[in-house]
Please model this.
Amino acid sequence: MTYAFQEPLPFTDLAEIPTASDWCQRWRGQQHSWRHRRDGGFDHQRFEVELLGEAPAKDFVLTHHYSRSFPSARFRFALYAVDAGERDLCGVAVFGVPVSAAVLTCPLPDLEPYAASLECSRFVLTDDCPANAESWFLARCFEALLERGIRGVVSFADPVPRRDATGGRVVVGHVGTIYQASNAVYLGRATARTVKVLPDGTILNDRTAQKIRGQEQGHEYAEAKLISLGAPVPRAGGDPAAWLRMALAAVNARSVRHRGAHRYVFRLGKDRRAREAIRLGLPVIATYPKQPDPVLL
Model:
């Protein structure tokens, strides 16, 4: 969805990183680390997967995921490391509702959005997890989703890095390796767009900006985020659109041209025939992306 209003902000073009590698990304306290696939070490007998409640899932994601946000969720799954009778929550997968039904109906036109298709909107493993843990965790989530009537999952890999106001890199880019290793169908890139990057490296997306302009449900949270970064408190009776322009300038937000995340689709079924019977609404790209985009100077 495109909105009519765009706040003028300084533009930045960011380089991208390769979308496939032998390194597995891990998180703790919104800081990333890496595990190499050759290290192995994953023993599925030491791990369990269960449905997880909203509160502990949200707490885990807000604590560890770089986005510092929690999406609208239908199903949340926990990955527990089990050792000597103790269970430690070390991963969370969230499947839920994207900002627009078109995110689901465009690639999966025959599946009812939110009822038969969902977006994998968060997939977070801490550095307690050895390499290769994510493919096993994802497979268990898909089995549970299929039992609940979900036939398709859309997910995105974002290869564009972002920095905070101090120059520290807070997002190194999603490599997409887990989707490729799990035999996802690659359907090319999502629509290129301009995103507003805040000084902490997080993004104020168009939908959130529109909530502020229209004073829609959820605008208080978005306004509080900008105020915490240094924006002035909005005046009673003031123009919300004018306040948003002032707030973004006050916190030194930047506009970044994003070339579009890579779109992956999983068709769920008990066998190959059932999976391939699900029609795709976009052309399949036979070759997975392996190289970064050219750097625009």
